[in-house]
């Protein structure tokens, strides 16, 4: 008798950094279970009226199947069925699918050591503990399949130059998040002292240190960081970049990193293939297991 193929379904939502965490946790679980990975790339975006974020993982070398409506609760009355399913812990219409939620940023052991055949994941999953044993596989999955824009290629050439030790700085100010929906702890803003102390660390270590700054808060960066000593910095323009995916690719190509409490910049540092990379990270992530062991915090 042929055993039914196991299933892992993941609901994606948020920006690219969040999507990558969700995908990575689900991908790792699917590998452990030898299961088919289904992605719900619809329900987490269709009501995102403030940020208008979209599914972005099609730009990568990943293999997945679109989640059928019955798995993703994407049908008339699905929200009610999903609410009931969350309470009882399994899909009301497909009881063999165990539901796991991560909205409190606590490690959920069932993802690390699964006990069921089929899972539906909904939440943040913002820790490499969920997928660290599959790092090599994930880095192959996350090779971008886009043609690089001319601007991206020009910046890449500067990053890879033998004349500099390239250090990426990811600055997040959360200016794009309306005050009415900011969450204490989640939208914590690092002050200029964090960046200056981190920059000084690399300046003292590398004579040819050059910093590539990635941010949406360009004016703040120009006034508070670059103005101090412009020759050390290149501001990577979010207006000229062709996509967030290409921005993230550029970020990951630097040798070392300074990251705010941003999942996007976290992935830029994690995706680096430099075995000797150093990462200085904000410690103000909602999940206290987000910062990778061995990364520095100031």
3D structure, described in words:
This protein has about 300 residues and is of the alpha/beta class. The protein has two domains: about 5-135; about 145-295, Rossmann fold (3-Layer(aba) Sandwich), CATH 3.40.50. It contains ten helices and eleven strands. The chain has helices spanning about 15-35, 70, 80-90, 110, 135-140, 150-160, 190-205, 220-225, 245-250, 265-270, and strands spanning about 5-10, 35-40, 65, 95-100, 120-125, 165-170, 210-215, 235, 255-260, 280, 295. Helix 9 packs across helix 10. The protein is elongated and about 60 Å long. The N and C termini lie far apart (about 55 Å).
Key structural traits:
298 residues; alpha/beta; Rossmann fold; 6-stranded parallel beta sheet; 5-stranded parallel beta sheet; 10 helices; 31% helix; elongated
């Amino acid at each position: 008798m042929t055993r039914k193929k196991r299933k892992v379904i993941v609901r994606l939502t948020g920006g690219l950094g969040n999507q990558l965490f969700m995908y990575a946790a689900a991908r790792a679980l699917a590998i452990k279970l030898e299961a088919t990975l289904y992605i719900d790339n619809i329900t987490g975006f269709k009501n995102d009226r403030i940020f208008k974020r979209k599914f972005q993982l099609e730009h990568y070398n990943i293999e997945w199947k679109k989640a059928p409506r019955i798995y993703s609760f994407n049908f008339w009355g699905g929200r009610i069925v999903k609410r009931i399913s969350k309470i009882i812990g399994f899909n009301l219409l497909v009881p063999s699918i165990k539901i796991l939620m991560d909205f409190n940023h606590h490690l959920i052991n069932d993802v690390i050591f699964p006990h069921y055949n089929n899972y539906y994941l909904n939440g943040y999953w913002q820790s490499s503990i969920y997928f660290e044993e599959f790092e090599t596989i994930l880095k192959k999955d996350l090779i971008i399949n886009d043609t690089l824009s001319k601007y991206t290629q020009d910046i890449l050439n500067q990053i890879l130059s033998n004349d500099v030790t390239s250090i990426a700085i990811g600055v997040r100010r959360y200016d794009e998040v309306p005050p009415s929906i900011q969450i204490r702890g989640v939208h914590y803003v690092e002050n200029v002292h964090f960046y200056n102390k981190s920059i000084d660390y690399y300046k003292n270590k590398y004579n040819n240190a050059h910093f590539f700054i990635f941010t949406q808060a360009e004016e703040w960066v120009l006034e508070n960081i670059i103005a101090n000593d412009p020759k050390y910095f290149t501001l990577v323009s979010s207006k000229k970049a062709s996509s967030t995916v290409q921005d993230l690719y550029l970020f990951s190509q630097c040798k070392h990193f300074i990251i705010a409490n941003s999942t996007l910049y976290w992935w830029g540092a994690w995706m680096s293939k430099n075995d000797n990379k150093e990462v200085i990270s904000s410690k103000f992530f909602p999940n206290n297991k987000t910062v990778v062991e061995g990364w520095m915090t100031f």
